[in-house]
Amino acid sequence: MEVSLTKGASEGPNKLNAFDNALLEAKIGNVNLIPVSSMLPPDTKLIPMPELEPGEMTNCVLSHQFSDNPGDEISAVIAYCLAEEMGCVIETGGINRTLDELKDEARFMAEYMMKKRKLKIIEYKEIIQTHTVRDKASVVAALVYHNPKRH
User: Fold this and answer.
1) Would you say 142 and 7 are in contact if contact means Cβ atoms under 8 Å apart?
2) How far apart are the C-alpha atoms of 103 and 117, rounded to whole Å?
3) Selected catalytic residue, list 25, 67, 75, 91
4) Which member of 38, 59, 73, 105 is catalytic?
5) What is the per-residue pLDDT across 26-56, written as a single tens digit (0 to 9) for each?
6) What is the tens place of the pLDDT at every residue in 75-118?
7) Would you list the DSSP string of 27-94?
8) Is 37 a catalytic residue?
9) Which of 13, 15, 37, 40 would bridge 87 by S-S if both were Cys, CB 3.0 to 4.6 A apart?
10) Domain extents for the chain?
């Protein structure tokens, strides 16, 4: 399976439009996002984010945050870890949290999920999108699963 990590941040006139604008920045604003839980098959490969077909049904694990409080620092985080047998995806985020807090939380969740499955992490990667709110803003981070028939 091929997956990509992507992220975006944007302001907008309201919550929906700020979220949509962040999705557009992440290059996933013109597809139908289907939220899935956080499991990866053992043969998962990370690839650069390809161009997706408008209206495409797209599975993803999505983290997002919104605030309309100027000055807030909003964050969305996606991390994944792989073992030989399988992998897990983690999503977190928040408002006014430090990068160290977010990284530590994502890493802890990844390690815990793999420990519960008695698996050894051989690869770990995270992306973090932050944004300082000016008016109304949203951030997104996603792991996108690619349809094998595309390639």
Assistant:
1) yes
2) 22
3) 91
4) 38
5) 999 999 999 999 999 999 999 999 999 999 9
6) 999 999 999 999 999 999 999 999 999 999 999 999 999 999 99
7) T-TTSEEEE--SEE-TT-EE---PPPPTT-EEEEEEEEEEE-STT-EEEEEEEEEE-SS-EEEEEEEE
8) yes
9) 40
10) 2-150
> Quick one: 2-150 is in which CATH superfamily?
Pyruvoyl-Dependent Histidine Decarboxylase, subunit B (3.50.20.10)
Tokens 């051989």 appear where? 122
Structure tokens at 70: 């100027």
Question: Which of these, 149, 148, 146, lies nearest to 48 by C-alpha position?
Answer: 146
Tokens 């991390």, residue? Answer: 79
Asked whether the beta carbons of 134 and 114 are under 8 A apart, the reply is no
Q: Which amino acid is at 30?
A: N
Q: Is the dihedral of CA 138, 102, 89, 116 positive or negative?
A: negative
DSSP H/E element including 121? none
Is-catalytic flag, 38? yes
